[in-house]
Amino acid sequence: MTKDIRDYIRTIPDFPHEGILFRDVTTLFGDAQGLRLSVDLIVEACRDKAIDKVAGLEARGFILGGAVAHQLGLGFVPIRKAGKLPGATISEHYALEYGTATMELHDDALQAGERILLVDDLIATGGTAAAGIKLVERLGAQVVQASFIIDLPDLKGRDVVEKMGVPVQVLCAFEGL
């Protein structure tokens, strides 16, 4: 019997807070078939989009994005939390459930006109993905697709990204928080 992406993802109740069902992709990444399946599904969905580079959101987006970039024969660009990149950067602040955070991108990571695939493990409220899209756009590049393993549709993050004009690909969805 063939496994579905959801079959590789473990759910951890009450992490990081009581009432949260944490969707853990480390079990997917740790399984050769699960990792291959997720990378292959993302690669297949973007082959006809003339992508120039893959950008991954810290931190699990680095794992997935690096593998996707390799399969597509493209370069990989990390979008990191503030203070983690060594060169000159541009920054984008965004709201979290309790407070704010900042994502950064090297100011020379992308060229104007480049077409970018944005990758992360999960889309929840869409704040991190929106910050990543804004950073890419500030360098004159365009996110032509955003791909995620998991969507939490109750949190409406997909709507946030699609309202920015970026098509969203998700491999599976989990209801609830």
Question: How would you characterize this protein structure?
Answer:
With 177 residues, the protein is of the alpha/beta class. The chain has a single domain (48-173), classed as Rossmann fold (3-Layer(aba) Sandwich), CATH 3.40.50.2020. The protein has five helices and nine strands, in the order ββααβαββββαβαβ. The chain has helices at 26-29, 32-46, 60-72, 127-138, 157-163, and strands at 10-13, 21-24, 53-57, 75-81, 89-96, 99-106, 115-123, 142-151, 168-173. The strands form two sheets. The chain has a seven-stranded mixed β-sheet, sandwiched between helices. It has a two-stranded antiparallel sheet with strand order 1-2. Helix 2 crosses helix 3. It is globular and about 45 Å long. It starts with 9 loop residues before the first strand and ends with a strand.
Question: Brief description of this entry?
Answer:
With about 180 residues, this protein is of the alpha/beta class. The protein has helices at about 25-30, 30-45, 60-70, 125-140, 155-165, and strands at about 10-15, 20-25, 55, 75-80, 90-95, 100-105, 115-125, 140-150, 170-175.
Task: Provide the descriptors you would attach to this structure in a database record.
177 residues; alpha/beta; Rossmann fold; seven-stranded mixed sheet
